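Hello,

Our lab assistant flagged a job as stuck in the queue for most of the afternoon. It eventually completed. Since we weren't sure the result was trustworthy after the delay, we are filing this so someone can double-check. Below is the sequence as submitted and the structure that was eventually returned. Let us know if re-running is recommended.
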Amino acid sequence: MTTSNGTQFLLPSINLGLSVPDKPPRVPSASVMKTLRKGDYVPLYHFTNRALSALNESTDLDLTLEDKSASLPSNIRKTDAELDLREFRDATERMLALLPYAGWPQEIIDMYRDFWANIQNHPTWEKRALGFVTHPNHKALLLYQDEQRRRWHLLCGSTPNSAVRYNLAIINDTVLQQATAVIQEQIQAAEIKEWAEAHSAKTYQEITQEIEQEFRSQTHYNHKRRRR
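-- returned structure --
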């Protein structure tokens, strides 16, 4: 919105026939919107149901640009690769809906929309999985999209050269394979850790049983000696 003297006004035009809503709108914090207006990278967790619910349940009505998202619980502040499918879909839809209000060019919005559509339509995307289940292939694709979004915004912000502003929507399968390898290594490391913890627990249990058995044997031996 532009005022009569040509000044750019960030607040939107109002609908004079629309009353105050019964419930507060589910919108991210002001600092998140400020970051979007700058065209910078924003993690998707800011647009998940849990994050928005936590923000809207707050009684703090301070409208400064302080980052209220920093107060969100750690189990809400996830990396993109840690989101489940439902969180990913909800977050991307909400972010796309907010990008026009953040002043993003339509061609960039279209690129983002195509990018996320291509992620979910990629041949390795497991389409039979439930919304709250994340297949390793999903994790690889979500890690890929997170890393590539970060890199794209970093390059766009660090250099005026338009040549680096490539099309995110074109999936690079070579780079995706690298992300897949990272996820596979993480899964393998988690399995090794789980096995080690289970093995340690079993060994501890066995040692405890041996100590108890030895104690009972010693008690029985002492009892027999006293009887003599």
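-- support follow-up --
The delay was a queue issue, not a problem with the job. The result is valid. Residues 30-171 form one domain. The chain has six helices and no strands.
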